[in-house]
Amino acid sequence: MPKSAKFTDGSLVQGASWGRSFRVLSWDKPSWTVAYGNREIHIHPSGKRRLSVFEAMLLQGFPQSYRLLGTLSQQIRQVSDCIPMQVGFALAESIRTSIYR
Question: Where does the signal peptide begin and end (predicted)?
């Protein structure tokens, strides 16, 4: 259960941002950048909870079957530190094209 009163007082509405720690996602808008630190995981559009590591992984483009290892903090860091796979692929393709012209 979230400890902050913001989760129960109605202030966390879709699209609201109360600094890095309280960014509420919207169902119909793109997510803010997935770059998490200590207790800075985006808030689910319902405003009732933070995203799970699995939901953050999906935002980063991980396949649903992908598994992370380590503690919760280590998993959050892994998701936060990665480049979305689609971006990495596009970057690699661009480099390959530039090298082999």
Answer: none
